[in-house]
Amino acid sequence: MIKYFKWNNFYSFRDEGKISFEVNQNAPKTNAFLDHGGIRLSKINGIFGPNASGKTNILNALYFIYNFIVNSFHFNHKGFLNYFPYMMNDENSEFEVSFFIGEVCYIYSFTVNKDFVLSEKLQKKDITDNNLKTVFKRQEQRFHSINFNNKNIQNLFNQMVRPNASVISAFSQINQLEMQKISSFWKNNIIFPRYPHTQDMFGLADISKQYNQEPDLLSELQNILNDLDIGKHKLLFKDMPVDHSKNLLFLPLVERYNSKQDKRYLIHLASESHGVFNLFSKLFFILKSIKNGGLVCIDELESGIHPQAVSRVLHLFMENTNQKGQILFTTHMTPILMDLNKYQVYLVEKNEYNESETFKLDQVEGVRREDNLFKKYMAGVYGGFPDIDF
After folding, report:
1. Is the distance from CB of 237 to CB of 268 less than 8 angstroms?
2. Is residue 46 within 8 Å of residue 59, measured between CB atoms?
3. Res 330: pLDDT
4. What average pLDDT does the segment 356-376 reach?
5. Which of 14-18, 274-278, 307-311 has the highest mean pLDDT?
């Protein structure tokens, strides 16, 4: 689970931005929140704001942290992937994230410029203990608090941790159990979906195989689609030829029944509506995060699907007090505000200097729990609203 992450001097954010799932004890006592070692966390954070305000850049910041932790050892070039400081300036960028793996809370921070890591630090504490311990600390290529078993491993480590690689990414390559656990947590539980297009049969086949390997997710998908009354149907999978070639791909079909004719029809999923196709794709990653207790990050959650379907998706995170899945999403669909409360809403806007700023709605003075967030947001009371003169 993610507790918070923050960043500065990245994409359209000049100053610090922060997204936190931690809430105070005044947050509603509903299944949309969970308690973990005395800390209350929201399962849902929605990001609202005008076009080009910086909503997607918040997800970009977390994805940069993800890439640095998981993949930076494998960077075979100078600098960092997708690193864009504000207005491409020469100043440093800082990142920090706090997350839980079991009963341990980690705080991980690092500072980079366009070419190399300036500093990096990992701390941890047990949720029953307030003592914060340093796992390692790094200043450029000088490392502290790392326990090497022998000099050969230390020499190997020094070679592996290149100026643009994280200690976690490098150290996990040589069977250091704690670094492997952290890297594995981020790789498997922080989800940035890549959705196939209707013409991308290989991407569709990949998701189909994963559904087929997890029948509980497939069953839940089927139930949700029928709950939304998108025509009663059954999902099937079949090896099918593509582009008149002999190559077969494992693809989904929709079985529809016509009671008037008493006939069943098989329709390729790619021939269905964009709404059904998008739900098929998005729900796999959402249901996976709920099942495994991970965080799924979705840009424009409502894209291609009906507002009722979006509301149904959000309620998946509110139905079970025991599940620990989380979702972070951007959206332009403001009626979603009626499904959320002030502890789950972030607004984004740009100031007069063209710098993005974000804030949680519970930080706005005078916002009450019983307020109609949708009506007040649409009236421009809270900010983060497009200033369009009709």
Report:
1. no
2. no
3. 97
4. 90
5. 14-18
